Amino acid sequence: MNLIEPSKVSRITSIGGGPIGGGWTAHFLARGYDVISYLHDENEEDSFRDIIDTAWISLEELGLADGASRNRLTITTDLAEAVKDTHFIQESAPEILELKQALYEQLAELVPDNVVISSSTSGLTMTEIQQRCSASERTVVGHPFNPPYLLPLVEIVGGKKSSPEAVQWADAFYEIAGKAPLVMNKEIPGFVATRLQEALWREALHMVANGEATAEQIDTALINGPAPRMAMFGQCMAFHIACGEGGMATNLDQFGPALKLPWTRLEAPELTKELRDRMVDGCNEIAGSRHFTDLAAERDRGIVAVLKGTRAARTTTA
Amino acid sequence: MNLIEPSKVSRITSIGGGPIGGGWTAHFLARGYDVISYLHDENEEDSFRDIIDTAWISLEELGLADGASRNRLTITTDLAEAVKDTHFIQESAPEILELKQALYEQLAELVPDNVVISSSTSGLTMTEIQQRCSASERTVVGHPFNPPYLLPLVEIVGGKKSSPEAVQWADAFYEIAGKAPLVMNKEIPGFVATRLQEALWREALHMVANGEATAEQIDTALINGPAPRMAMFGQCMAFHIACGEGGMATNLDQFGPALKLPWTRLEAPELTKELRDRMVDGCNEIAGSRHFTDLAAERDRGIVAVLKGTRAARTTTA
Questions:
Q1: Annotated domain spans of chain B
Q2: Closest by Cα among B200, B225, B241, B244 to A145
Q3: Hey, which residues does A37 pair with through a beta bridge?
Q4: Which one of A129, A267, B130, B157 is separated from A76 by 20 to 30 angstroms, measured CA to CA?
C-alpha cells in the first residue's frame, strides 16, 4: 500500500444523508476540508443541509479552522463522481449488512488506491462488511459518537483483512482532523464507549423495571452526580483522584471487596492481581508527573466549568 | 414531630473531619449558613481547614451566597456543644456500623427535638444505623456525591423507623440549601447514582481484564463520547433526543432487541410493555412542552460549554 500522507488530505468524501453522514460532513467542513457528500436520493438534500446548518451553530461557537466554509461542500448522487478524486472516505450508509457489502464491493472499483475507506458502523464489524471488497486491506471502522459534529471520539478498528497500516493511517488522520481517535486491538460488539454506556443503561432499565427509580431520577442522579466528573476525567481517573495519595491502588485494595456487593446486576469480574496492577499502572501513566492535588484542582476547575456551562445552556431556553 | 421550618434553618452542625465532612462544611458556609463542625480529634483541624480552603476556590468561582464567609465556621471536639443550638445535622463519621449506631444513640440525647439528623453514609442503611437511636423517626440518609462541595446530588432515603415527614423535610431543606435532592422510596444498596456508576465501572474492569481496553482508553472514550452528553442531559434524555420525533419510544421499539446483544456483561432486563411505557412516559414528562429540536439545540449548547470548559480547565495545568 502506498497511502496518501494523512497531513496531505484536503478533500474528503462523506457517504450517507442521515444525521451521521451530515454530522461528519459538518465536522470536516468546519476543519477546513473540501467535502463531497454522496446522497442516495436527491430528495434528501434539504434535510441534509438542515443537519449541517444546525451543526454549524455549535461548530462556529467551538471555533472554525482557517478557511472553513459551507461553500466548500459539493453534493452529488453519483457515487463514482463522489469518490474519484478523494483523499479519504467516511461511509455512513444505512446499517444493513447486505447494503454495506455491496457498497464496499463497488467502492473497491471506484476509489483511488491510495485512499482509506472508513465506516461509521456501530452494529456491524468490518470483517463482515469487507467480505466482498477487493480493497479490504484499506477498509477500517471509524465509529463516531452522536452528535458526530461535536463529540470528538472516533473508535477505530480493522477487520480480519484490514491492513494494520490502514488502522494506523486512520489514527493519524483523525487526530489531524480534530478528533479523539481510540484504536482498538479487537473487534468487540459496542467498541469501548457503547459497551460502557450500555452497562449503565441496562442498570437504569433494571431500576425502572423494579420501581426503584424513574427516568427523571436516573437523569437527575447522573447530571448532578457522576457525569460532570466523568466529563472532565473519565471514571478510572475519577476514582484515582478521589483516593488521594493512594490513588487507584487504594481504590481497588480498599473497595475491591465491595465489587461483590449487590451494587448492580452486572456480575463483577474477578479482581486478580493482574487486573489490579493493570488498572493501577494505567492510572499512574495517565497522571504522569502530576500530583493528585494538582489533578484534584484540575478536576474541580473542570467540574465548575461543566456546571456553569450546562447551567447557562439550560437557562437560555428555561 | 414539630420540625423547624426548612427555610428557617440558619445554623448547621457538620460531624466528621474527613473529605466528606469538610466538603459539606464548605458547601454550607458558601450558602451563607453558620456552621459548627465537630471533629473527633483536635489534631484534625489543620487538614480540615485545608479541605475547606481548597473547596473555597471553586465555591467562589461558582458564586457565594450573600454574607457567606469562612469566619462563620466554629470547630469543636465537644459533641454536646456542637449540636445544642443546631437546626440541622449532617453526619459524615467513619463508615463503621458500630460507631455510627453508638453516635446516633448519643445524638438522640443531645439534639433538639425539632432537628433532622442526616447521614452521608454510602455503604450502610439508615435501618441499620438507627437501631439504637431513640430519635430514629428524625434520622434519614442524605448521601452526597464526591466532591460534596461541588456535585449537587443528594440521595435521600429513610430507614424503617424514619418518619416520612423527616424525609420530606430533608428534600425541602436540601433544595433550599442549593443541592439537587433525589428522594428514594426504597433503601437499595448504592442508591441510584452509585448503582449506575458501578455498572459502568464493572464493565470497564471486565474490558481491562480481557485486554479489550486500557484504563486510558476507557477514560478517553468516556471524556470524548458519552460523558459530556450525560453531563448535560443524563442518559434517558440523551437517547430520547437522539431519536428525534420518535424519542424514547423509537429508541426502545427500534433498538430494544439490541439490548440482548452482547454489548455488556450485564444481563438485560425483560423489555416488558410496562417497562417500555414507564421509560417513554418518564422522558415525555421531562421534555414537557419542549420540542425535540429545542432539546437538541439545548443539548448542543451544553456540550459546547462542557467541551470549552473542560478544555480550558485542562489547558491551565497542561
A1: 6-183, 225-315
A2: B225
A3: A14, A75
A4: A129
Q: Which chain A residue has its CA at the smallest distance from B60's CA? A: A304
Task: Please list, in sequence order, all residues whose beta carbon lies within 8 angstroms of the beta carbon of residue B97, skipping any fewer than 6 positions away.
Answer: B124, B128, B129
Strand partners, B183: B156
Read off the pTM: 0.88
A312 touches chain B (CB under 8 A): yes
B308 SS3 class: helix
- φ/ψ of A34, rounded to 5, equals -80, 135
Distance from CA of A9 to the nearest CA of B (A): 23
Query: How far does Cα A21 stand from its chain's mean position?
Result: 14
Q: To the nearest whole angstrom, how far is the Cα of A200 from the nearest Cα of chain B?
A: 5
Helices and strands (H and E) in chain B: how many:
13, 8
A248, A280 Cβ separation under 8 angstroms:
yes
Topology of B6-183 in CATH? Rossmann fold (3.40.50)
Closest CA to B32 of B153, B168, B129, B176: B176
Q: Do A231 and B234 touch (CB under 8 A)?
A: no
Q: Point out the residue among A207, A266, A286 whose CB comes nearest to the CB of B266.
A: A266
A113: cell is: 488506491
Q: For chain B, what is the radius of gyration of the CA atoms?
A: 22
Judging contacts by C-beta atoms under 8 Å, the chain A residues touching residue B213 are: 184, 192
Neighbours of B67 (CB within 10 A): 8
Give B122-180 pLDDT, tens digit per residue.
989 999 999 999 999 999 999 999 889 989 999 999 999 999 999 999 999 999 999 99
Chain B residues within 8 A of A199 when measuring between CB atoms: 199-200, 202-203, 263-266
What are A187-236's pLDDT values in tens digits? 998 899 999 998 898 888 888 888 888 888 998 999 999 998 899 888 98
Q: Is the pLDDT of residue A130 over 50?
A: yes
- Please report the ipTM that was assigned to this predicted complex: 0.89
- Check: CB of residue B128 under 8 Å from CB of residue B96: no
